[in-house]
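Justification of resources, computational component.

The compute hours requested in this renewal are based largely on the per-chain cost of generating structure records like the one below. Each record pairs the submitted sequence with a full C-alpha cell output. That output is archived, and it is also reused by downstream analysis tasks.
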Amino acid sequence: MKDSEPKSVDFPAIPYPWQQAEWQRVLDQHLADKLPHALLFAGQQGLGKSHLAQALGQYLLCHSPRSGLACGECRACQLNRADTHPDFKLIRPEEAGKAIKIDQIRSLAEYVSKTSQQGGYKVVIIEPAEAMNINAANALLKSLEEPAGNTLIVLVSHVPSAVMPTVRSRCQTLTLLTPSKDLALPWLAAMASDDRAESLLQFADGAPLAALALLNGDLLEQRQGFQSTLSEVALGQVSPLEAAKKFLDLDTLELMDWLIAWVHGIACYLNAKDSGRGQTPEASLLPLLEGLDPTLLYRYLDKIMMSKRQLLSSANPNKQLLLEEILMDWRALARLSYGRARQARANELP
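The structure output for this chain reads:
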C-alpha cells in the first residue's frame, strides 16, 4: 500500500490548515496536564493523520517549543530531524501492505517501561493500527495499560473499526473529518500547481493528500481505469472475473482503499450530504442509483472492509478469489438496483 500521507518536507512538521481544531485540542490537553497516554487518530486515508502525529511527537520532545510548535533548533529537534531521537519510536509494517508483527510490539513493551533518555516524553506512533494482527494487538494491551510516566502512544488508523475493540477502548479517539473545499482547495491548488485541483479532490473523496498523490506517476490514470471498470461491471459490459484479472497487477490493498472511497462517494451522493465531496457517478450509473438501497450499499461497504482486514491479517487469502467475490457482489447489487429502478418507473406509468 502506497503511503498517501508522506512525511513533511519541512521540519518541524506543521499541522495542515484543516487540522487546526484538532491540533489546538491536543495542545490544550497538554498544557492542562490532561494529555492521555494513548491517542487514536482516526479518519479516511489522505488527511495527514500521520503528519499530525509526528508534529505532536516533535512538539512534546522539543526542549524549547515556540508558538505551539517544535522549535526545530534544539538538540531534541536535531535528533528528530535525523530520525535518531532515542525517545521517539515509529512502528510500521516491515513490508508495505503486510501486518505489524507481534515481535515489533513486544519490543515496544520494554521500550515504554523505561524512563526517557532525554528526561522528557517518550513518543510512540503505530501506523496503520489496523495492520496489527490479533497477536500483536493483544501484546499491545499491556503497554497501553501500564506505560511509564510521560509516555504517549499514538495509533493512526484509516479504518478504526478494524482495530481490536479492547485496543480502541484504551485510547482516546480523535477523529479527523474530511475538510471542506474552502480549506482543501487553496492548499491543493498551491501544492499541485494544477488547474485540475477540484476534480482531483473529488476523485480522492475530499482527502487533500490523496488528491495530491494522484499527480504522481500514472496513479490518476490507474484510478480512472479502475472506476471505469467498476461501471462496466455494473452495466454487464465486463464480467467480474475479467475485471479481477485486470486488477491483479495493481496493489490489492490500495484497490480496497479506492473501492472504499468510491462506495463512500456514492453514499454521499445518495444522501445528498456534501455535494463537493466524492466523485460524481457516471451518467450511465444514474439509473442504478435510482433503485439502490442504501442499506445494501453499506453492507457491501462492510464486506469490503472485512476483506481489507483479511488482507492485513496473517490469513493470507487468495487475492484473485477475493477480488472476484467482491466484484461479483458488486454486479449482483447493480442488477438488483437496476431492476428496482425499472420497476419503480413502470409503476409510475399511467
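The CA atoms of residues 125 and 323 lie 31 Å apart. The domain at 17-175 is CATH 3.40.50.300 (Rossmann fold).
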